[in-house]
Design brief:
alpha/beta, 13 helices, homodimer, six-stranded parallel sheet, three-stranded mixed sheet, 2 domains, elongated, 9 strands, Rossmann fold, N-(1-d-carboxylethyl)-l-norvaline Dehydrogenase, domain 2
């Protein structure tokens, strides 16, 4: 038994990622106050010991460190700045930690608003998917002050492994954009490579196995490559969310006047996945768009 | 001391890859007969115990398993089928193992020619670069008969770690094409991601560090990402050779009527590297093409 005084924490957003992350915080011993728009999504947390609040404002009144893990930029704005938002209950010296993947410029604006009221904000988007969230092995990319980062670090460590303080507010979101740039293009590259093997009459499963041992190794080849071989596209990470992230990347690139042709191409494949009605599938369903275009399907018997 | 009788082996091609690979075979105890167009490139092998031959034909007369590791398709044709080529000295039951990266269709044609004379051929291109060649940790992607594969396996194991028998003749080359498809696109993806970080004011080194821990992890992000941060483009794997490999990929794709848009784009970047006079640099110099286009340079102080 430790005798340290644990800060009370708040948590908002219990989706595919948020739920296991919140459970890891509870299991590590922190008292957790939760709010969910749909009350039933809070149930498993209450069973694990969390306490329910009626609004984000009420979460802010009870907790000193408040995590948000919601879908998109407007959701974060609503939860933090909206009518019954955190901002109406936050206390001096509290920290808001947004782990959603949203616009870096909006993040900076919210952080400035909170700072004016004596509240620190960290942007701390994650990588590692549902598996990483459950196993507590997520990567955190963090933007904000060093003092806030140090204060929240033990909580990050209860949810993840590779925790990097990138820079000031917004820098975490920029790093996450880089992550999505790379993940999208690597998925597209793996899909083209496996499709090439299939079309050329080499067993894509053996090709994947061989490539895993060399410079072509990537986590995507290992995990999503296997999904592609199995045509098993249960998320994982939904194509609809990946599309949203790529939209953010391209908005920032346009602001910066930065050409990113490979990113643009991969984004179009993800758009096509969603256009095909597969937005709820894992973004590695990108393979099926290439299969359609090529008239070749992984795993088909070769004549 | 073992008392097994080791087959005599032959080796042709002592470049950046071939030299350390041949040394690993010698150090593992095999008697090695070598031929080099430029006699001086054979010197370090002779000092290690290799014996010199005056032509590929003479290598074939002395050895039962003959490795070739040369630059391009015409070089392999010349060494095996040319005037003083292996074919004029090969004995019944010998095996020719071509570890070069060349055309799959030419590989199949050479294999058929050799098979008509009672000689097996394996295509066994590698991945892992100079470091893998020196450390004996290369990946081998092998095409050919199972009996030939089993016979050569102990020799592959002296040079590499992940050794996969993909399928029949040419299948190793197809797998290598898949490898190059993926390596090219991952290099391009890493370059765009780091450039995005730089342009958006986040430290690319910290972004790389964060991304290494999640789904964006790739060997390319680890190794070539660091090269990009350092603008250190000594090969490694030369852009000029990568260009050749991408030409092979695109020739096969055209034969197969297979559209590969991402591969095509990455190939154009590599063409640009060579066009810029950087064909002797590592293919991760692709970053500099994107930097030129974007007017942003990794590592520049940000204003």
């Amino acid at each position: 038994m430790t005798t340290r005084t644990l800060e009370h924490i708040g948590f908002i957003g219990f989706g595919i990622m948020g739920k296991p992350m919140a459970l890891n915080l509870i299991n590590a011993g922190w008292p957790l106050w939760g709010y969910a728009r749909r009350a039933e999504s809070l149930q498993p947390l209450l069973q694990a010991g969390a306490r329910a609040c009626a609004s984000p404002r009420e979460v802010a009144e009870h907790a000193e460190i408040i995590f948000t893990m919601v879908a998109d930029t407007p959701d974060v704005e609503q939860v933090i700045l909206g009518e019954a938002g955190l901002i109406h209950g936050l206390r001096l010296g509290s920290v808001v930690v947004d782990m959603s993947t949203i616009s870096a410029s909006v993040t900076r604006r919210i952080a400035a608003t909170l700072a004016a009221g004596g509240v620190d904000m960290l942007d701390a988007p994650v990588s590692g998917g549902e598996t990483g969230a459950i196993q507590g092995t997520l990567s955190f990319m963090v933007g904000g002050t060093d003092s806030a980062f140090q204060r929240v670090l033990p909580l990050f460590q209860a949810m993840g492994k590779n925790i990097v303080h990138i820079g000031s507010n917004g820098a975490g979101q920029i790093a996450k954009s880089c992550n999505q740039i790379l993940v999208a293009q690597t998925i597209a590259g793996v899909a083209e490579a496996l499709l090439f093997a299939q079309a050329a009459g080499a067993d894509p499963a053996k090709v994947r196995q061989a490539l895993l041992g060399g410079f072509a190794y990537s986590k995507i080849l290992e995990v999503h490559g296997q999904r592609m071989l199995d045509h098993q596209f249960q998320p994982g990470f939904k194509a609809g969310l990946h599309q949203k992230d790529m939209r953010i990347v391209q908005e920032i690139a346009a602001e910066l006047k930065l050409p990113l042709p490979g990113t643009a191409l991969a984004s179009q494949w993800i758009n096509a996945v969603v256009a095909n009605g597969q937005g709820e599938l894992d973004s590695s369903a990108l393979l099926t768009v290439l299969e359609q275009m090529a008239g070749v399907k992984i795993g088909e018997l070769q004549g």
